[in-house]
Amino acid sequence: MSEIITTQPSPEFYIAGGTLDPTVPSYIVRAADMELLEAVKHGHFCYVLTPRQMGKSSLMVRTAQSLQKIGTSSVIIDLSAGDTKNTSLEAWYLGQVLEIAEQLDIPGNHSGWWRRQIHLGGVQRYMKFLTGVVLKKIAEPIVIFVDEIDTILSLPFNSDDYFATIRALYNKRASSPALKRLTFVLLGVVSPSDLIMDASRTPFNIGTRIQLTDFTPEEASPLVSGLAPDPDLARQLLDQILLLTGGHPFLTQKTCMRVARWAKAHWNVSEASIIVDKKVDEMFLSEAGRNTDDNIKFVLKRIVESKSATKLLRYYQRIREGEILRDNELDPIIVALKLSGLVKANEGGILVVRNTIYKRVFNKTWIVKTLSEREQQPMKTSKFLYDVYISYSNRDRNWVQGYLYPRLKEAGLRVWIDFQEIRTGDAWYSKINQAVEESCNMLLVLSPDSATSKWILEESEVFLSSAEEREQEQRLIPLLLKPTQNVPMFISSFQRIDFTQEKLWEVRMDELLSALDAPIRVKQSNTPISPVRSSAIIYNTAAIRTLLAESFEDEDLIAFVFDYFRPLYKQLQHTNLPKNLLIQALLEYVDDHTLFDQLLDAIAQQKPRHYDRFRSQLEIRE
After folding, report:
1. Strand 538-539 and strand 619-620: pairing?
2. What residue segments make up the domains of the chain, in order of their start?
3. What is the dihedral of CA 222, 227, 228, 229, to 10 degrees?
4. How far is residue 448's CA from residue 548's CA, in Å, rounded to a whole number?
5. What is the second-level CATH architecture of the domain 31-209?
6. Beta bridge partners of 498
7. N or C: which end of the chain has fewer CB within 10 A?
8. Looking at residue 5, what DSSP letter applies?
9. What pLDDT digit, counting tens, does each position of 526-585 carry?
10. Which CATH number is associated with domain 386-515?
11. Residue 206 has pLDDT above 90, yes or no
């Protein structure tokens, strides 16, 4: 027998807005509930970064309550509770210290402790309090939830140190086992790249991201209980609501509440089929609804008050019209659109309008009107002369000149590249430094060859230093052309685009052009893919022979052949050739099989210092 469900109209059953008590019957359990609980139980640092009114704070409170039941202490810090605009660094960190001590019931004069550590800076005192007081006084695991972290961006002092401290506590776990008992969960309406803004510092790249999604029909099924006196009609009403709200937590709870209020006071079976549309029109689509609903106002504010409002509107217009745009965490416009809540990525990674209500509120008329208002404002002149600066090594020039550069130009971008901009007699060093400072984005082509290039690394450092000194919004975007080891830490911390598979070049190029907000988005490129193959390059075998001889001892060379050229090793493993003849055999083998490019990449990764000495001699230009 199927389960008999009893329903009764009860508007108080639903709660729209605010933090829900985990015990209320309308709290909807989602996959994120279990994912977050399991992650923190295992000591993982986590972050829940989503739009407003998606249930972050409710999830936090419920998780904290669940942790308490298993003997884990929790602290909840709401960063929006204090004055973020007029506080000092000392007062802000002391406030957290006192909050942590109070919630963990740690006795003592903590304000006095803080004053006695005056020889330390505020950040150092905060870390010392966690490691020297909290972990010594509390024996069980501790989870610190930091809610509304987006408010930290309005602090009158540099907030990077706060997140850098959290990362440092995580990284020190290897040398200090006690720190494994301390876990942080960050919640707010920001992207991970916002947490540490200084381009010269390592981004906030630790922890597990918990995806807080809209309600699925299965998850939302408990909401049927308070909708209507007839279970079948209650189910139909909930289906209609979800069809319009897309399962958005706030929109769904609010619509259920209004429908339940109608059902309790004016139940009429003949009106049941139209009541959901009627209530949605009143709450969200009418002029009054648009101007009073908190969620609609939040989405609107995030779009129109953004410095990138025009770009956000144009991206949204393309998505709303059905253009296929893939999710791309590297693209700040896509990230901003998702944080507004207006769009989301579907299961296939394609961006779509979040729900039907948003699609109707933020419709074509609204887009045209808002864009028109924006375009009537005085245009700001770009402070950058170039959209893109391409940094690449000599051995990667054929791909750069034959594919990357033409595609960027075809997309309408202003590109600086050495072979176009530097002429005979130019002071090339000063021209490059000037171009680096005048470029909004640096594309760093990563390969074994470029990873060993001191000049490539210097260009990157100059670019990041320029961004920091001038406080400019410049981005370093690594393009991984070949699998590469030994990538410097400050480069590996940046999210890269993977061009290692030729069959995916156009997909990756679309991601890159999206990230660069290219003026022209050609769906099918007219540019032939024509990077020169290694077979068309003349290699200096004399220089390569010397490089091999100086880089490897006899046994090292044999191991090198075994690791990278196994078929040749099998042919030679019982011959016991002297090193000079083994090198000759290796050169003949790579020549016969057109493997010089792979040979040089392998040497670059195994013997980078030797390779760097010979890099200018390895190819012969015609």
Report:
1. antiparallel
2. 11-15+214-285, 31-209, 294-375, 386-515, 534-620
3. 50
4. 16
5. 3-Layer(aba) Sandwich (3.40)
6. 480
7. N
8. P
9. 555 555 454 467 899 999 999 999 999 988 999 999 999 999 999 988 888 899 999 999
10. 3.40.50.10140
11. no
